[in-house]
Amino acid sequence: MTPMTEVTERAKAWKSHDPNDTTARFVQDLLNDGASSTDEKLAKLFPDGRLQFGTAGLRSRMQPGPVGMNDLVVVQTAQGLARYVIQEHKSNNDDEASSPPICAVIGYDHRSSTGESFDISSLSFAIFTALVFMEAGIKCFLMDGLVATPLVPFGVSRYVPEIMYKEQNVVSFGVMITASHNPAQDAGYKVYWTDGCQIRSPIDQGIAKSIEENLTPWTDYKKLYNDKKTAFPEDPCLGLSLPSETAKLVDAYYDAILRSGLVSGLGKSDPTSMKAVPRFCYTAMHGVGHRFAKQSFANFGLSAFVSVPEQEKPDPTFPTVVFPNPEEKGALDLAKQCARQQEPPCNIILANDPDADRLAVSEYNPETDSWNDLTGDQIGVLLGHWLWNQFSSLNDPRTISMCSSTVSSQMLRIMAKKEGFHYEDTLTGFKWIGSRAAQLSKSGTYRQVFCYEEAIGYCCGDVIFDKDGVTAAAVFAELSMHVYGKQGQTLVGHIQSLYHKYGEFVSNNGYYILEESSSSTVVPQIMDHITEGGSFARSHVGEYEITAIRYLGLPGYDSSTHDKKPTLPMSASSPMVTIRFSNGGVAQ
User: 4-41 burial, b if ≥16 CB within 10 A, otherwise e?
Assistant: First the structure.
């Protein structure tokens, strides 16, 4: 069999299972064409392999075939996930008859294949996921309408077990269908485990194996979909969502935040008693965040922010930005223009990414007539310091704790040493940060009040243990009111005062984008060079003396521990190296 024949056979097999008429027809048209250029397209769409499920779930371009995000890939993924959850549930319960029910929480954003008419969207992924879970006998809470990502972990860890099932024994997990701040052509599929945190290893490996074992659709999902569409022609969710339950969940989320100790009450302060009152401009970056951030401000008693009108409504084409990531250069330009056009002008910009789980901040400097875009670490340190001051005054016997990723600034660690609260660093990603924060909180010894990663991801309080840009925006607004109104400082001035107290910390972060085909060879070559082929004999980088080196690939190494073994988890697929220098610098 020739390579092209193998591609053709894979395409035919895929098309025969595809529940989406549009993508199935697109593939059939390619098969009928026979041109060499068409063969190239087929070869790209149907390689010998498939999109790999990992701790980040799935994320790829919306297109037909096993390496794209499409309805069949989602059906296969949902089948594997359902089987894995059920199997894990059974293995933890000897008496199957009396075992608690399983309930899945599903949320989705506004992504859709607008660039090409494939009729693929986050909504269709949510519907097919719900149909699969129902086929597996799993109770399903498909949230009605577009939701911010933080509502899914809240549903898993708080709403379903505490309110929906009224403290009865229930096993809950979640799926959030979003590509976050990826380019417009991408879609994603993120899984939350029964603790309300993003999945970690080895859970991801178990799910990936289960997906491979459940690639053939269990039933005719296209018929199920069309039957629902006929029965509920006016309902985007085809009668599968729970509108009233969704409204209750949103209310419960804001109520939990209100009772969490995060709300200081500064939002209701008399402006005449303040040295200065900051004004806020907010952008949802064409995502789902606006209505949730607006309600969050109201929940904190804050005055309404100014919203960037061109970026307020969800728009899957992201027309005003090249890349819908508030960290990217130029992404906040429209917000900056909008802020200065107000009367009086706005001083501070708060920006959520499209699924509203991250927060970016910029502050206007009238002396230079320019904007200071705060780094992720600066925002994290400001929030950490604010929450330490807020919670340390409470009469709570538990020790306050905070976490951050190991690649984030070490300033929070120094602050913890000086102030006396507990601090831990973790591997990168909120799957590790959030799960460790949850463990600390559940221990009963610690009151977990804050965790963050330098990639503008912040978790304030202990309501959920995942990034939450909606609540972080309101907390940061209160912090800003304190800095402007009570201290008479700017945010940048306040950061400088923290540097005077805890020491100067500077970070310079960057990244390179590698094609998937080259990443498997380039990254190992880089690591091999840095670690001297695994000997870790390197003593200097240029003129700078190395005092410690830690490698979290396999096999792991840490020169600072007595047995030379790292205390943090190691990963062959995500190796990370940390080099400490005699001058106090750290490279990661």
Answer: eeebbebbeebbeebbbebbbebbeebeeeeeeeeeeb
Q: Please spell the DSSP secondary structure of 401-418, one letter per residue.
A: EEEEETTS-THHHHHHHH
pLDDT band at residue 98 using 50, 70 and 90 as cut-offs: low
- Identified catalytic residue from 180, 307, 362, 435: 180
Lay out the sheet containing 359-365: strands in order across.
306-307, 280-283, 348-352, 359-365, 370-373
In whole numbers, what is the pLDDT of the chain averaged over residues? 92
The Cα–Cα gap between 89 and 444 comes to 26
Find the mean pLDDT for residues 575-585.
83
In the numeric block, which tokens belong to residue 511?
Answer: 């990244």
What is the number of other CB atoms lying within 10 angstroms of the CB of residue 103? 21
Joined together, the tokens standing for residue 439 give 């463990």
Nearest 5°: the CA angle 390, 395, 396 is 90
Per DSSP, what are the bridge partners of residue 581?
Answer: 546
Helix (H) or strand (E) holding 71: helix 71-91
Question: Tokens 């960037």, residue?
Answer: 308
Burial of 143 (0-12, 13-18, 19+ CB in 10 A): buried
pLDDT at 573 over 70: no
Residues with Cβ within 8 Å of residue 141, at least 6 apart in sequence: 103, 104, 105, 106, 155, 160, 164, 242, 245
Distance of CA 142 to the CA centre of its chain: 19
pLDDT number for residue 518: 60
pLDDT at 351: 98
* 8 A C-beta contact, residue 372 and residue 346: no
Residue 180, amino acid: S
Q: Which H/E stretch holds residue 504?
A: none
Residues 6+ apart with CB under 8 A from 534: 528, 555, 557
Q: Tell me the β-bridge partners of 348.
A: 280, 363
pLDDT tens-digit series, residues 533-542:
777 788 888 8
- 389 is written with which tokens? 């001051």
Rg (CA), the chain: 25
Instruction: Give the H/E segment covering residue 229.
Output: helix 221-231
Is 0.85 topped by the overall pTM? yes
Highest mean pLDDT among 33-37, 54-58, 192-196, 584-588: 192-196
Model confidence at 414: pLDDT above 60: yes
180 is catalytic: yes
